[in-house]
Amino acid sequence: MFLMTRALLPLLQQGQERLVERYHGRRAKLVARDGNEIDTMFMDRRQHPGSQGRGLRLVICCEGNAGFYEMGCLSAPLEAGYSVLGWNHPGFGGSTGEPFPQHDANAIDVVIKYALHRLRFPPAHVVIYGWSIGGFTATWATMSYPELGALVLDATFDDLVPLALKVMPQSWKGLVVRTVREHFNLNVAEQLCSYPGPVLLLRRTLDDVGSASVTRWLRAGSLAQEAAFYARYHVDDDWCLALLRSYRAHCEDKQEDEEVWGPHGLAFPWRVGQGLSSRRRRQLALFLARKHLKNVEATHCSPLEPEDFQLPWRL
């Protein structure tokens, strides 16, 4: 990391200067509970929130492997008009320490505390955006702070073990699994299931890292093919919306009886699809996939275009 940072130092300095001069970025060092200093940069749009009040929302960006806030994924929400808080993983750029999972968790923890208590953004206005391996810290954040407003996962993975096995000899399987589970257990899917708020998944169609009816829909090679496949299943959007709203109404009635309210006002899980025919379940699955998954025609490492960054769908 020291050698890589040294090699990239001119680009990192240029990136910092651009964020300060063009976007009035404010740099701060935050001390995590393990003593590591986490380098951050904050761009505030609250005084000029722009169209749809985007600047009133703060997007906290969790960079991918070998990613730095000076030249990383924060450019998409920043150019889209949101307030943005970038930070570097321990050992990256101006952050001290080493990027092990617990150190990363400690880092995002202090970043969120900074956003809520020093920058004074309401939890519901905070969006966590994780790209690639940054999906681990992003899902840890929303798992640990379920009151946060939304989660966007871009080109991430559900678990590190299958990716590690793909690039290691088959005879090493036992060693690989044990090593990952004990030292690098990036259990993104497990953490994601602990967040009750709205989620958007961005899938890079030209990605070489990521890996029924939804599977075939995901294999569509273009937006036109997606639409044609969707139409072939005769998905009735109005029926799907009405059904989901009935689940929500049932959930709200139950909460009023039990006087139990979650951070987003709803309890989960809903029994989605229970009692439906297989045809209706496929239609509902495709409707939900279209709302919560977005295909982006890009490779894994190419920057996300500002117009492709959006907040998750809400019922």
From TrEMBL:
<dbReference type="GO" id="GO:0012505">
    <property type="term" value="C:endomembrane system"/>
</dbReference>
<dbReference type="GO" id="GO:0006660">
    <property type="term" value="P:phosphatidylserine catabolic process"/>
</dbReference>
<keyword id="KW-0378">Hydrolase</keyword>
<dbReference type="InterPro" id="IPR029058">
    <property type="entry name" value="AB_hydrolase_fold"/>
</dbReference>
<dbReference type="GO" id="GO:0052651">
    <property type="term" value="P:monoacylglycerol catabolic process"/>
</dbReference>
<dbReference type="Pfam" id="PF00561">
    <property type="entry name" value="Abhydrolase_1"/>
</dbReference>
<feature type="domain" description="AB hydrolase-1">
    <location>
        <begin position="58"/>
        <end position="231"/>
    </location>
</feature>
<protein>
    <submittedName>
        <fullName>Abhydrolase domain-containing protein 16B</fullName>
    </submittedName>
</protein>
<dbReference type="InterPro" id="IPR000073">
    <property type="entry name" value="AB_hydrolase_1"/>
</dbReference>
<dbReference type="GO" id="GO:0047372">
    <property type="term" value="F:monoacylglycerol lipase activity"/>
</dbReference>
<dbReference type="GO" id="GO:0004620">
    <property type="term" value="F:phospholipase activity"/>
</dbReference>
